[in-house]
């Protein structure tokens, strides 16, 4: 998706290729997510990224942030780098932590 020329208006690598940026979240969700996932919900996309160890990079001060759909979101993962497909196998889903309420039962 990130290397697809049809997606370049919505998702792209940063200059150094160590993170990627999603811009125009509303249009990205409508035009891109549904063709790659079973949903077009940006919050679900972010949740999935978090489950695989990606981190959001905040570059906009809180006072200057606008609505979610018009924000630019940047994400990084130490093993998700431009021109390094050999690292992709090292990206694993985080293990689920046990529910603390289940202890002692």
From TrEMBL:
**Which Pfam families has this protein been placed in?**
HSF_DNA-bind
The name on file for this protein is HSF-type DNA-binding domain-containing protein
Which GO terms of the cellular component aspect does the record hold?
Answer: nucleus
> What species was this sequence derived from?
Pisolithus microcarpus 441
Tell where it localizes.
Nucleus
Similarity comment text for this entry:
Belongs to the HSF family.
Q: Which InterPro entries match?
A: HSF_DNA-bd (IPR000232), WH-like_DNA-bd_sf (IPR036388), WH_DNA-bd_sf (IPR036390)
- What quaternary structure, including any partners, is listed in this protein's UniProt entry? Homotrimer. Homotrimerization increases the affinity of HSF1 to DNA. Interacts with transcriptional coregulator SSA1 on chromatin.
Domain of life where this protein originates: Eukaryota
List UniProt keywords, sorted A-Z: DNA-binding, Nucleus, Transcription, Transcription regulation
Molecular function terms from GO: DNA-binding transcription factor activity; sequence-specific DNA binding
Major location, coarse class?
nucleus
User: Where does the HSF-type DNA-binding domain start and stop, copy by copy?
Assistant: 33-57
């Amino acid at each position: 998706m990130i290397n697809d020329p049809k997606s370049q208006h919505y998702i792209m690598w940063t200059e150094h290729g160590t993170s990627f940026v999603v811009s125009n979240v509303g249009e990205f969700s409508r035009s891109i997510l549904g063709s790659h996932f079973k949903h077009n919900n940006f919050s679900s996309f972010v949740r999935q990224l978090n489950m695989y160890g990606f981190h959001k990079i905040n570059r906009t001060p809180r006072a200057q942030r606008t609505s979610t759909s018009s924000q630019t979101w940047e994400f990084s993962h130490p093993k998700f780098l431009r021109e390094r497909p050999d690292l992709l196998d090292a990206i694993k889903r985080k293990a689920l932590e046990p529910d603390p309420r289940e202890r002692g039962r």
